[in-house]
Protein: Glutamate-ammonia-ligase adenylyltransferase
Organism: Sulfitobacter brevis
Amino acid sequence: MGAQSRKAGGMTTVSLAARITRCPRIWRTERAQDAAPFTQGMDAQVAKLVAGAVSTSPYLMALLEKEADWLQGAADDPEAALAEVIAQAGAFAPDALADGLRQGKRRVALLAGLADLGGAWALEEVTGALSDFADAACAAALRAGLLIQIKRGKLPGMTEDDLADAAGMVVLAMGKMGARELNYSSDIDLICLFDETRFERDDFHDARSAFIRATRAMSGTLSDLTAQGYVFRTDLRLRPDPAVTPVCMAMAAAEAYYESLGRTWERAAYIKARPAAGDHKAGQAFLQTLRPFVWRKHLDFAAIQDAHDMRLAIREHKGLGGPITLPGHNMKLGRGGIREIEFFTQTRQLIAGGRDPALRVRGTCEGLQLLAEANWVPQEAADSLTDHYRFHRTVEHRQQMVQDAQTHALPKSDDGFARLACMMDRDVEPLKQELHDRLSAVHEITEGFFAASRAPAPAPPEMTHQFDTAVLDRWLTYPALRSERGAEIFDRLKPELLTRLAKAARPDEALLAFDGFLAGLPAGVQLFSLLKANPQLADLLIDIVSTSPALASHLSRNASVFDAVIGGDFFSEWPGQEGLGAALGALLDAEPDYERQLDGTRRWAREWHFRVGVHLLRGLIDAETAGAQYADLARAVLGGLWPVVGAEFAQRHGAAPGRGAVILGMGSLGAGRLTATSDLDMIVIYDPDGVEVSEGRRPLPARLYYARLTQAMITAMTAPMAQGKLYDVDMRLRPSGNQGPVATSLASFASYQKDEAWVWEHLALTRAQAIAGPQALRGDVEALRQTVLTQPRARAKILGDVAEMRIRIAAAKVPEGIWDAKIGPGRLQDIELLAQAGALIGGQSARDIPAGIEAARAAGLFDAAQAEALDAAYAQIWALQCAGRLLSATPVQSESLGRAGVAFLCRTLGCDTLAALEAQMEQTYMTAAGIIGQALTPPDKAEPQEAT
């Protein structure tokens, strides 16, 4: 047995002896001597390890007495021996199962204990070995329990063939077993469920009764104490409402419980849940249905309070408060113990795991490292807690290894500490010092995180401004503060908020803006918890509500968009349309349900939309960049949802007939420049390619198919669902406007554009771009656009029609004041019309307005200096439009701007005062209107220009 390694089946195996890195010291010489008869023929290193181990552990000695012969061979290849024991668990005959599993547990415990004490296996390998055997034992015991029910005809419609997936029953491993972190003497926490859809309604009660009996039989097989010992103590009390529910529940009943009554501790428990035995597929499907319960869509900082309450309740119930004193200290539940690290990790996973699926892992150490990588935990803290966790678990294992006792307490006597030190190959006093230091370090790291949630409200700071008490008093009547918990958190938050409001340029104005935001907030616990945990967000919140009533109103209805500020790449480089499309595609792929896909898209788009607005508000980007980013986002949404809507529609009516359809973006969408409140101008063009009817459950003629598909897309974009709506959609630029069909065939569109379209429709075509749909069809639509735009045209006709359009627009719509950047002479629409006319005259297909202005100059409508002036005017007017729409959905009014709004407008347009900005805009409009009027006036009617 002295071989250190050998070849087996072409693979190198490493013996236990070759991996021993430490050895327990002899604690009781006489006990070590008792092991001598059982170690004859063993490798000397293994024999020494065994002697040290049994000298400290009566439990290991008892295992050795029964399994010494097996150990002789197992030490040559521990992994192969372990795998064989696990495989054998599923092969026992029913009458040999109970004893066979108990023997298997003895062997796994003995091998893992020696590999652990000798440093041959890391902590994860030790707990993994125990957990893997627990899985195999559960599966074998479950199969035996179900076999009895099937043979007795108690499971309706089921035969022995259905044992392969346990007839739809699954055993969920929870807690340490779920995370593959079992102790030597752990209970195994199980939740037993069955898939009720496998049975007819009339058979449900019989099936449930049979599953309950099978569950009890499984539990007895595992936990009953016989002459051969026990396998695992089983605990079935983690199931929903265990005082009144059966030990095996229907999945639908469990799901209904969690949706309506589930608590935070149950959410935390399901972080570690996994199917361990039975119908794994049904178990995974059940866990998938619970995902919204466990992993909230928003950053769940309210979970901190819940977790802290649980910690306090455990301490009070177990009497574990007070300072750290080593004798009898509970390494699991006491201060600085294992549970502190687990709560710390799981709470942060609950906070952020809804947004970041990478954080949804079961293992504590793995969770800490992923949290550090995602910047939710400092790397130093994660490394420190990981190291402490492994040390704590090692100490806990040593204590349990002594007598197979379910204990987590340190020794109470000097003799007990001497034994522990020998097991760890340490001197007593240094070990005690390290224990105290580690427990203190864990307490210090974790307590600060939790205690902040329970900290009493700070004493109100000395106010530099006296606020209107009538405003402050009415806050308690608002919906967000009606719940006791919301009011409690806000009470601790309020002094800091008032301090920040007092520092505003106009405190009373800022208070009223915040009051408006608070009044519109439907619930406050999540937002207040987030602000309490992240005080830096308060500045951003006050900045937003003081500057932009429109953005503040949006924020009050969608406060979870703040998640993006701290839970994502809020201040990183803009990903562009391609990057946004990839991110949205991944989100859509992860949501199989259509309604969830739509809601997920709304939530996702809202966060990116919020980011653009905040970046513009804070001066991180200019108006031109914001316009491009808003357009990138809208195009990504259209490109992502169009195939999703199409796939959903195809389920009823079959695949799209012919070559499919494209979305043609018009106006600002086609040109790639939107504001915060822009609707989306678009046309749907399809090509049936000779196919007259779709092939599906409910076939439709091609024309009707694409008309209804377009309506489905409009609904997907505009319906006010749980997460709000995406965009308003405007289809009036389609052929024949509101009188025409909502979707147009390519052939009809081509015929219309070539033979029937008005000049204004060709003007609109200069900014059109196909942005969603099959690439080949998009290419054909673009080729048609190029053909239409480059055909010869009568210059006088174009200019005359545009001049007439200006007159009609001026008669129909009057500017709403100086800040109405869109409508009126020399404003956005006026400049855009002239630029589109220039593009049409010059046969240019570039979509942006500066390119159209240059085309107009090349056509001789004005000179280079005037073109430059028009470019500058358009840039400035666009900046006003983009900034103004962030402040208000309608043209802003000077009297309602507020000081912060005025400062934002002036900063965006490069002026020091509002008066200076007003004068600047008046001059800009006048200059642009003069250039446009001259360009559209026929030469024979032009008045002589005075020299300037």
